[in-house]
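Teaching assistant's notes for section 4

Start the section by putting this record on the projector. Ask students to predict, before seeing the second block, whether Phosphonoacetate hydrolase will look compact or extended. Collect guesses on the board.
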Amino acid sequence: MSDMPNCPACASEFTYDDGIQYVCPECGNEWSKDGESSEVEAGSGIRDANGNMLADGDTVTVIKDLKVKGSSSVVKVGTKVKNIRLVDGDHDIDCKVDGIGPMKLKSIFVKKA
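Reveal the predicted structure now:
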């Protein structure tokens, strides 16, 4: 039997040593050998299109023209959105876009400014 610890996220016994950390091949969780929890273990959080972590109050830039449902308006590429709020769900950013109003965005269509 292996002397590797079980995965703290999914309790899998198939973990392996990857140099400075342990990795679970089943769920993709990574954690350090010295016992500190990683971002993935603590909940990966919400990331932008470039993989940067987003937080409440950040400013983001839209990277694609987005049609506004139920309107003829479009949120143009390069539009800066200030003071975002992160929420659970498919559209994980709650914000107010200048000239359009309050709306929800998907994090894959923004980058951190």
